[in-house]
Design goal:
single chain, 268 residues, alpha/beta, Nucleotidyltransferase, domain 5, 2 domains, 5-stranded mixed β-sheet
Length: 268
């Protein structure tokens, strides 16, 4: 097969270090020259690796890693002028011709030299930052949902059936009533706190709020409501930051949300 990259490097990455092979193809020689070195996974070590690859005049770097260990290497090498490819381990291992006595890094270097590796998509830094924030917001929203479920279990233990009447027990009305219940306010007064459509369900609310609600339940409800508040504050802060990062991509964003089923904001 034709050699696409005369100077190609393969990097097999683990948690603590990386095995690196630099493969140099020379015209007229049946076999390429291969040199293998080991570098640590810390930032100074990866920068040392970067200098070594630049000195070797490598034009293509193929890396493979389990999990997220590739990130440090990719981010520090991506602006060094190489063609940088993050290989899918399953795709690379499925290619025919591999010998069991060939180190992974040498195999990656050979595949890269022959142009047989299709790199995985790694977004540019601004999109990576945006993706990290949206994923964190989704995770926090899920955690908030877990706390809300715990809150409902506490109410069930107390015989309080607020969730059967109010759609969202952590909404404005539901929260105010739970806080009042924890403060020892009588049910008749709590019912008057209902807002919106709940005002038409006062009799149902009175029944739902009548139970064996003790100080123990009140302590737990207050604690869980405070946790929900913290999650809400974090979600608001993340949303504000996401909106800032989306602004340079506003035109693309506005076009994408016109697609049916593609919401303007990921569900909370």
């Amino acid at each position: 097969m034709d050699v696409v990259h005369a100077r190609c490097a393969g990097i097999d990455i683990s948690k603590t270090d990386a095995k690196v092979a630099v493969r140099v193809h020379r015209e007229g020689k049946a076999r390429a020259d291969v040199r293998v070195e080991t570098f640590g996974s810390s930032t100074p070590q990866v920068l040392k690796l970067r200098d070594w690859l630049v000195e070797a005049q490598v034009t293509c770097v193929v890396m493979e890693a389990t999990g997220d260990y590739w990130r440090t290497f990719f981010y520090l090498l991506e602006d060094a002028g190489f063609e940088l490819l993050l290989a899918n381990p399953h795709a690379v291992r499925g290619l025919p011709g591999r010998k069991t006595d060939v180190a992974d890094c040498q195999w990656l270097a050979e595949l890269g030299a022959l142009g047989l590796v299709a790199g995985s998509l790694v977004p540019p830094p601004p999109i990576r930052d945006l993706r990290a924030l949206t994923r964190l917001r989704s995770q926090i929203a899920r955690d908030r949902g877990v706390v809300a479920q715990r809150l409902e279990k506490v109410l069930e233990d107390a015989g309080i059936k607020l969730s059967s009447v109010a759609t969202d027990i952590t909404g404005v009305s539901g929260r105010a009533m739970l806080q009042a219940l924890s403060d020892g306010i009588v049910v008749e007064d709590i019912v008057e706190m209902a807002r919106g459509a709940l005002r038409n369900k006062k009799a149902e609310l009175a029944d739902a709020l009548t139970g064996r609600f003790t100080k123990h339940h009140g302590f737990m409800v207050k604690l869980l409501l405070e946790q929900i508040d913290r999650y809400d504050d974090d979600i608001d802060e993340l949303t504000s930051r996401i909106d800032e990062l989306v602004e340079p991509q506003r035109r693309a964003h506005d076009l994408l949300v016109t697609i049916p089923g593609c919401p303007a904001r990921s569900p909370m």
